[in-house]
Amino acid sequence: MDKKKMDHNIIEYILALLGIPDNTHFDFNYIMDGNWKASMLSLLDMQNIQTAYKVIKFMDEMPGGFLIYHADGNEEIIYANKALLRIFKCDTMDDFRKLTGNSFRGIVHPDDLEDVEQSIQEQISNSQYDLDYVEYRIISKDGRIRWIEDYGHFIHSELVGDIFYVFLGDATEKKRRYLAEHASLLEEKSKSEQKMKDLMEEYVKERKSINQEQLRRLEVIEGLSINYETILYADLDHDKILPYRLSIRTERQFDQTLQVRSFQWFVTDYAKTWVHPEDRDFVSQATSLAYIREKLAEKKTYYINYRIIIEHEVQYIQLRIVNVGNKEQLSQIVMGYRRVDEELKREMEQKQMLEEALSGAKLAINAKNTFLSNMSHDMRTPLNAIFGFTELAKKAYHDPSAIQAYLAKIETSSRQLLDLIEKALEISWMESNDIRITETECNLQKLLQDVYKTVSAHALDKNISLSLDFSDIQHWDIYCDGDKLKQLLFYLADNAVTYTQNDGEVHIIVSELEKLPNNFASYQFMVKDTGIGIHADFLEHIFEPFEREKNTTFSGIHGTGLGLTIAQNIAEMMGGQIEATSTVGEGSAFTLTLRFCIQQSPSLPSNGPIDLTALLADKKILLVEDNEINLEIQTALLEGLGFTVETAEDGAIAVEKIKASRPGEYSLILMDIQMPIMDGRQATREIRSLPDKALAHIPIIALSANAFESDKRLSIECGMNAHLTKPIDIPALLETVSRIFQTLATNT
Fold it and tell me: How far, in Å, CA of 376 to CA of 382, rounded?
C-alpha cells in the first residue's frame, strides 16, 4: 500500500475512533473489550487501531490547536484537541461546542468569516495537496479577541465524507508585536495617531506594495503614452532599451515585440533607417550618451524636432527625452516619439501671420511717416505764405491794392491749412468709428447744385470748365444723409479739379439707373476729368490713407492724399463703392453707385430765401465766447454784416442775460462749448428749461473748435439747433441761420 493511501486509511481510523461517545478521553482496553470490538474489527485491523489511537493521544497532548470539521453542510466540528480548548478558554468539549455552535463558522470572528472562507476556497482550488493558510480573529469564552494562524487541509473520507483537518496557533502576541512595531513606524512618519482601521489598511497596503521607484517610471511612461506613438525606456549605464509602445517605424527595430535591445545599436539604426539625410547627423548627436547627459543635467527633459521619410513621404517627428532616474547618475530615461506635422504647420501659419502683421505694421508706419513728412511740408507751405504775406502787408500800408492782394493770398493759404487739418481730423473720426449715417428727407437737385457751387470757385481759379449733368434723374426727393453725400461728392469733384491742369475739364454726371422694389432706386454718380491721370500700379492704392502718387514738391499740387480715403469710407458706410479708372496724361473717372429710398410725398418747396438783415433788425445776437481773440474777431465780423452783437464770457453769464431779457430782445445765440464756470451745453440746457417759452426757444448755434461727429451729436442732444466749427465761416453761418429761421417759419 502506498504512503498516500495508508495516510488516508489512518485518517479514517481516527475518524472512526472519534465517533465513539465521550471521545475526549480514550481507554484502549475498553474499546477492545467492550461492545465496540466487534464493529471495529469489521472495519479496522488491530494495528491500525493502535496507530490511530496513538495519533489521537498525540493530537490531544500537542501544544498547538488541532481541529477536524465537516467541509460541507453547517461545517460541524468533529474533533478539537485540548490545546484548542485552552485557546478558547473552554474547560470541556461541551463548552467549546456551545461557544462555537459546534461549527467552524462559530470559531471565526463574524467580521472575518467571509474573507476566510473565500481565501480557503481559492487556495483549495489552486492546489488540493498543499496546506491552506489564513489569519483571522476569534472571540474566546472570556470575551477577548485573539488572532489565530490556521493551516488546514481538505480530504474526502468514505466513512464521513468531505472534511478539513486544521492546525491552529495563537498568533495574538505575534500580531500585537507586529502592530505595535508598525504603529511606531507610522507614528514617526506621520506624527499623528491613527485608528486601528487605518493601521490595518496600511498593513494590507504594505503587503501589496511594489517598488515605488518602478511605479514612478510606469507613471511617467503612461503619461507620455497619451500623446506619443512610441515610448521607450532606456538604461544608459547598461546600454539597454526596452519598448513600452511601438509605432510602424520602431516595430522594425524590435521585430514587433517588446524585447530588450542595445541602446547604442537602436539610436544608430533608427537614424540610418528613418531620419531624413539632412537631419541624420543632428539626430545622431542629439541622441548620443554625452549629449543626453549634458542636456538632462541642466533640466528634467528636452526635445528635438526632425524629419523622417516613410513611403516617400516626409513627416515631422518630435522626440522628447525625460530623466526618470537619479539626477546625479542620469542613467534611466524615457524616450517619447510623436508626429508634429499639424503643430508645425500651425506654427508656420502663425509665423506667416505674424510676419504679415509685422509687414503691415511697417507699411502703416512708413505710410504715416510719409504722411507726417508730407503734412509737415504741406502745412509749412501755407504757413510760410501766411507769415510772408503778413510781413509784406505791414510794409505796404501806403498801397491799399497791394494790401488787398496780400490779404487774399493769406486767406487762400489759411484755407489750405484748414483743409489739411479738417481732413486729418476726418480720418481720425472714421478710425475711431465716431461717425454715423442718418437718413433724412433730401432733394438731390439742390444737393448737387450746392456741390457744384462749392467746387466752381476752385475751378474758376484754374479756368477749368466745370459741368453738371443730371438730366437722367426721375426721382429727386429721396431719403439719405445729405451732409455725408454732399461731402463725398465734394471730395470727388474737388480732387478732380485739383489734379486737372488749367484750362482743363471736369464733368459731374448723375444718372438714375433703375427703379428697385420697395420704393428704392439706384443712382450713379460719375466725376470725369482731363487731368494728369494715375499710373496703373498706383491705382490700386488710390484709396489708402496717407497715399499720394507724388508729394507736393514733385507734383506741384497741394493735398494730403486723404480726400479719396474719406470719400471711400463714406461710400462704404452708405452701402456703396467707388470705382476708379485712369489713363496717364488723359484723365481719370470715379464712379459711385448708391441706392436710396424715394420719398412718396415730397415736402413742398419753401417760399425762397429769408432776408436775415430784415429779420434780425432791431434784435441782438448773443455771442458767448471765453477767448478774447476769438471774441474780438467774431464780434467784428458779425457787426460788419450789420448785426447787433452782445457778448458773454461764459455760459453762466449767458443764462443770466437771457433770464433778464424780454421776449424777442435776442434773436440768436452763438454758443462756445468749452468755457469755465459753465460750458455751452450746460448753458443750453438751462436756457431750454426756462419757464418763459419765448426765451426757452431762442435759436442756439454751437460755434466750437470741437469738430468730431460725437461733438455735433452731443450739441444737438442738449438742445442746440446746429453745430458749426471754428474758425468761423461767414457763408456757412448765414446759410445755417437762414435754414433755422426758415424751418421755424414753416413750422409756425
Answer: 11
**Torsion sign over Cα 55, 127, 206, 323:** positive
CA 282 to chain centre: 36
Dist CA 691 CA 99 (whole Å): 110
DSSP SS3 for 49: helix
| Residue in the block written with cell 471736369 | 506
Rounded to whole angstroms, how far apart are CA atoms 696 and 659? 9
3-state SS record for 378-419:
HHHHHHHHHHHHHHHHHHCCCCHHHHHHHHHHHHHHHHHHHH
Rounded to an integer, what distance in angstroms lies between the CA atom of residue 187 and that of residue 150?
30
Tell me if 455 sits within 8 A of 593, measured CB to CB.
Answer: no
Q: What is the DSSP string of 477-508?
A: EEEE-HHHHHHHHHHHHHHHHHTS-TT-EEEE
Q: 359 burial class (0-12, 13-18, 19+ CB within 10 angstroms)? A: exposed
Cβ within 8 Å of residue 624, ≥6 positions away: 647, 648, 649, 650, 651, 653, 654, 669, 670, 671, 672, 675, 680, 683
d(CA 243, CA 252): 12
Helix (H), strand (E) at residue 700:
strand 700-704
439-454 mean pLDDT: 88
Q: How far apart are CA 32 and CA 40, in angstroms?
A: 8
The 10s digit of each residue's pLDDT in 678-724 is: 999 999 999 999 999 989 999 999 988 777 777 888 888 899 998 98
Q: Are strands 240-245 and 230-235 parallel, antiparallel or unpaired?
A: antiparallel
Q: CA–CA separation, 422 vs 490, rounded Å?
A: 14
523-548 tens-digit pLDDT: 999 999 998 888 887 787 787 765 55
Q: Give the residues across from 89 on adjacent strands.
A: none
Q: Calculate the alpha carbon distances from 23 to 18, 35, 60, 77, 492 in Å.
A: 6, 15, 11, 13, 130
pLDDT in tens, 565-616: 888 888 888 888 899 999 888 899 999 999 898 888 765 555 555 666 666 6
With the CA atoms of 547, 549, 554 and 556 taken in that order, what torsion angle do they form, in degrees rounded to the nearest 10?
-80
The torsion angles phi and psi of 270, rounded to 5 degrees, stand at -65, -45
Tell me, what DSSP letter sits at residue 401?
H
The pLDDT tens digits of the residues spanning 158-188 come to 666 788 888 888 888 888 888 888 777 777 7
CA distance 510 to 524: 6
Helix or strand holding residue 65 (H, E): strand 65-70
Over residues 195-209, the pLDDT tens digits come to 666 666 665 565 555
Contact 635, 645 (CB under 8 A): yes
List, in order, residues 6 or more apart from 696 with CB less than 8 Å away: 687, 688, 689, 690
- 377 neighbors 551 (Cβ within 8 angstroms): yes
Would you tell me the crossing angle of helices 482-498 and 563-573 to the nearest 10 degrees?
150
